[in-house]
Amino acid sequence: MIIFLFIFFFSGMMVFFFNFNLLLINLLSIEFMMMSVLMLIYLYLMNYNFELFFLMIFLMFMVCEGVVGLSLLISMIRILGNFNLMNLNFLKL
């Protein structure tokens, strides 16, 4: 199970590093990596009978990271009309 989660994490990392054109694909790969880390933390905490409160804190940071990414995506679409990462230089004031 843990090996599959590491494979999921590294496949998300490969998508993040090798597909740098679209912001939406990069945001989805970051969320994919965070979900695999969340499952790894869950398995670790359940294996050693620790409290699961840390999962709620980690899940809260995942949601905040997703909201910031989506707000950046929406602002890029409103300002530039597309969400290519190559146009990110035009957001400088």
From TrEMBL:
Record protein name field: NADH-ubiquinone oxidoreductase chain 4L
Database matches in Gene3D superfamilies: 1.10.287.3510
GO cellular component: membrane
Family under the similarity heading: Belongs to the complex I subunit 4L family.
The species this protein was found in: Asphondylia rosetta
Topology of the protein relative to the lipid bilayer: Multi-pass membrane protein
Keywords from the named record: Membrane, Mitochondrion, NAD, Translocase, Transmembrane, Transmembrane helix
Record localization: Membrane
Catalysed conversion reaction: a ubiquinone + NADH + 5 H(+)(in) = a ubiquinol + NAD(+) + 4 H(+)(out)
Main location: membrane
